[in-house]
Amino acid sequence: MRKDFQQIDVIKGFAIISVIILHSVDQKALLKTYSVLHIWQAVPLFMVLMGLNTGMSVFNKKPQFAELFTTTYFKKKFDRIVVPFLLIFGLSIILGFIWYWLTGHYKIEFRKSNLMGVLPVSGPGNYFITLTFQSILLLPFIKYGFKWHPFFTIIALVVLEVAFLLLSADLPLFSRNKYLYSAAFPRYFSAIAFGLVLSKLVFRQARATKITLITSAALISGVYLLEMMYGDLNLPQIKEEWKTQNVLTFSYAAFVVLLLFKALPSQSDNPVLKFLAILGKASYHIFLVQIIYFGLIENRFNLVLNLGVCLAVGYLFCRYEKTIRQYFRSKSINPVF
């Protein structure tokens, strides 16, 4: 049921453009434009969509526990997530050496965290790749729980995130290694939960009470975001750098997804929507490319150049990575000898 809904790709397209803008604009400009209410929602949008897709994938299915982790499942995830990462991992080393040869700046760093998804040439947003890797193992359990015990699963996700935030606030492990905290999937459990809830709402007429609840939650999140960024609100249980992405804010991103899903057509030939949908389909590849790009360049404030390079190269990477793999697959199925 999750296929052929252009809205999902359009939202992902908007989100990946937002990621590049966030990494190209200074903090003052972001604050001036109240970006916390729009482009700063990029990763929360991705995570809510992850939950939405998870909920949609079991709409007419009854997954059994023994079927959660199959060879087909791992092969599919390996092809979609791991192979592009391995290609960009190798490419980052090559580009790192070329960059050193051209500029004299050595950007390659081999470390233990490479095993968690940190690229040798790493830039902003690398934590999202580690989140994606964790999703391979965690989402099947969430999917199973949501199908058989939806209410309990949603409540459990929210409670587990709150517990994680409270327990991790003073843990030395996360103080010593901020990346581990940034890349911890439990930080986004409630975003996944909101996505699961949306999977029950986007295809049916929602009752007035549900609309009121969702809108109220989004307004509360919006007020919290503004107070946190521009007011005196401070919650010591939440680390400063992630105060805008937590259980208190994700209802805002969920509301944006619901609003766009209802407002946009399932399919459209509108050139803007088609362009965004194309970028959305390539968003993972674009995300990988922008990590290396921002990890190499010294001046990251050339917005037009950054958008042009990251979007174009990421799209081409997505397109030709698939074409090459399909070519070799066809050769293995239909040998020439």
TrEMBL record:
InterPro entries noted in UniProt: Acyl_transf_3_dom
Listed GO MF terms: O-acetyltransferase activity
Annotated membrane topology: Multi-pass membrane protein
Every Acyltransferase domain range: 7-304
Alphabetically ordered keywords of this record: Acyltransferase, Cell membrane, Membrane, Transferase, Transmembrane, Transmembrane helix
Transmembrane segment boundaries: 37-60, 81-102, 122-141, 148-167, 179-199, 211-230, 242-261, 273-297, 303-320
Keyword Transferase: yes
One GO biological process term: enterobacterial common antigen biosynthetic process
Pfam families: Acyl_transf_3
GO cellular component: plasma membrane
Compartments where located: Cell membrane
Family affiliation: Belongs to the acyltransferase 3 family.
Protein name: Acyltransferase
Protein's organism: Adhaeribacter swui
